[in-house]
Every structure is written in C-alpha cells, then in structure tokens.
Design goal:
Layout: H1 3-18, H2 32-41, H3 48-58, H4 64-86, E1 95-96, E2 99-100, H5 102-105, H6 108-127, H7 135-149, H8 155-166, H9 174-200, H10 205-232, H11 235-238, H12 244-247, H13 253-257, H14 259-276, H15 285-296
Antiparallel strand pairs: 1-2
Helix pairs in contact: 2-6, 3-4, 3-9, 4-6, 4-9, 7-9, 8-9, 9-10, 10-14, 10-15, 14-15
This protein binds geranylgeranyl diphosphate (GRG).
Geranylgeranyl diphosphate is lined by residues 45-46, 48, 81-82, 84-85, 97, 155-156, 159, 185-186, 223, 226.
C-alpha cells in the first residue's frame, strides 16, 4: 500500500466510525427505510468526496472534525445518486460496492425511499447544530449543494442527458455532449466538494477559482478513468458490473477517443490539476496525491 492509499484508508476508517452516530434507529417498522439508507451508505465506497471536502478545508486550517458534517452530507447525497442509478428504471444493476444493490437487498420501493431519505438528510446534516459554522456559511453550503445536485445544470440534468444519449448515440456533437454529461453528472459533486471546503475556510475569490479549476480537471479525469475501468477494470475490485457501456452502446470517453487517447487525456488533465495547486505550496500535497490516485485507481 502506498503512503497515500494508507492515508486515504485511515481517513475512510475514521469517517466510517463516525457514521453510526448519524443514524440512530427510531422505533417503528418504518425504520426499514433508515436501515436501507445506512446499508448503502456504510457499504464500502472510497469516500473521495468527503476526503476532498476535508483536505480542501484543511488548506484554510479547518480541522477534519469541523468539516465532518459537510463531508458526511455530501456522501449521503452521493449514495442517494448511486441507489437511484442502480434501480431497474435506470441502470438496473445488481451489484454496488461489491454488495447487492439497495433494491436487491431490500426492494424497489424501499430503495427509492432510501435515496429520497439520504438526499433530504444531506441538507439536515448541513443545518444540524453539531455542524460548527455560522448560519450564513450553512446557508451557502445548502444552496451550492442543491444547485450541484439538481436539475438546472446539476447532477440530475447530467443523468437525464446521459439517459437520452443512451437511446440516441448518433449525436451530432459527441465531444460536446460527453463533456456536458460528465460536467453535470460526475463533475458537479466533485466540484462541490472543493467549493464546500473553500466556503468553510472563507477562501478568497482567487483561491476559490484555483480549487474550481483543480476540481473540474480531476472531475473529467475521474469520469475518463471510470470509462476506461468499465473496459479494463476487474469486477472484483470495482464491486459493480463492468462492460455495460459497450453492451449498451453508450457514448463514453473510450467510445469517442479509444483507450490509448483517453488515457493520454486523463493524464494531461491530472498534470494540469496538480500544477494549479502550486499556489497553495506544501499544504496541498494530499490533494495532489489524490489527483494521481484518481488517475491510477483500480476501483
Ligand atoms: C440518479 C440523479 C441520479 C444521478 C446518478 C452518480 C450517478 C448519477 C450515476 C452513477 C453512474 C456513474 C458511473 C457515474 C459516474 C462516476 C461515478 C459517480 C462513480 C461512482 O463514484 P465513486 O467511484 O464511488 O466515487 P464510491 O462507491 O467509491 O463512492
């Protein structure tokens, strides 16, 4: 294990240990939905989004304890998107994070509700009084998160475009389309992670722009690597069904550029992301390492 992998793994363990406190189980059989929410949330996952929140906030001397709630909220929202993406009406997947998907483990209606529950709980966590920031910062965090996850150029819009493209791959401008899908579906939440850290740390406009640039570059690289892994990855490491993009004739970075060029583009994006962080000096070391990790990941 590299030094960075072990750093990320320690972060994940610490993060996972704090999760049960956020999910006290109320009495009543309706707690089934909370069990389903916690099942999917605690079911592995690399925790890259809360890691990004934490490390970005650290640039501004905000401790990991202070940024925890914001990272947890984002991971809840991310997990909702995975649960809904796996549903029969969407990607129809049986496996997620190496375990049965939420609708396979529970049932479809419960999985829809678990997604809804995690989405709304994200905002409750940000507003929670245990989140030690001012109302104005929490307000900003909520508004940015709603926009990143929503239907107006956010993740929901990206998912819609992705679904439409699946049924119509002979789009006139495939390059533009694939970039728009990535930017909204995958990119917006990764961008939010860095924005949130910057909001917690009350970053300057210039610092925010730098982090924005970094997160856009790693976001695109993340999606390109995801597309590459769908072709070349190992199912036991990825924990999800692979080869689906080609089987569904999906427009992806690999179908558009081919494997070799897709790898070159991803590598170029990661170099640009890392260079941008120079302004933060040594304190951005872990963010630089994360960029490499995204490029070289196998799950
Ligand atoms: C249902 C509104 C709605 C949106 C779904 C997240 C998503 C949008 C679709 C999932 C399909 C997919 C392959 C998305 C692109 C990349 C992505 C988000 C991968 C999963 O993220 P990781 O690798 O997952 O960080 P873990 O499990 O490690 O958290």
């Amino acid at each position: 294990m590299t030094d960075f992998s072990s750093y990320l793994s320690t972060f994940s363990q610490d993060f996972n240990q704090k999760l049960p406190n956020l999910f006290p189980l109320p009495k009543g059989e309706e707690n089934r939905v909370i069990k389903a929410m916690y099942y999917s949330l605690s079911n592995g996952g690399k925790r890259l989004r809360p890691f990004l929140v934490t490390e970005t906030a650290k640039l501004f001397n905000i401790s990991s304890e202070e940024s925890f709630m914001t990272g947890a909220a984002l991971e809840c929202l991310h997990t909702y998107s995975l649960i809904h993406d796996d549903l029969p009406a969407m990607d129809n997947d049986d496996l997620r994070r190496g375990k049965p998907t939420c609708h396979k483990q529970f049932d479809e209606a419960t999985a829809i509700l678990a997604g809804d529950g995690l989405l709304t709980y994200a905002f409750e966590l940000i507003c929670n009084e245990a989140n030690p920031f001012s109302s104005s910062i929490k307000n900003k965090l909520c508004s940015l998160l709603a926009n990143a996850a929503g239907a107006f150029n956010g993740m929901v819009a990206g998912q819609m475009l992705d679904i439409l493209t699946e049924h119509n791959t002979d789009t006139k401008q495939p390059q533009k389309t694939i970039n728009r899908i990535e930017e909204m579906k995958t990119g917006r939440l990764l961008r939010y992670a860095c924005e949130a850290g910057a909001v917690l740390g009350q970053a300057t406009e210039e610092q925010l722009q730098t982090l924005n640039f970094y997160s856009r570059k790693i976001g695109t690289a993340f999606q390109i690597v995801d597309d590459i892994l769908d072709v070349e990855g190992k199912q036991e490491l990825m924990g999800k069904t692979l080869g689906k993009d080609a089987a569904q004739g999906k427009l992806t970075f690999v179908s558009l550029y081919g494997l070799a060029e897709a790898k070159t583009i991803a590598s170029q994006l990661i170099s640009e992301a890392i260079s941008a962080l120079e302004v933060f000096g040594g304190s951005a070391q872990r963010l630089k390492e994360l960029a490499y990790f995204i490029l070289n990941r196998n799950n």
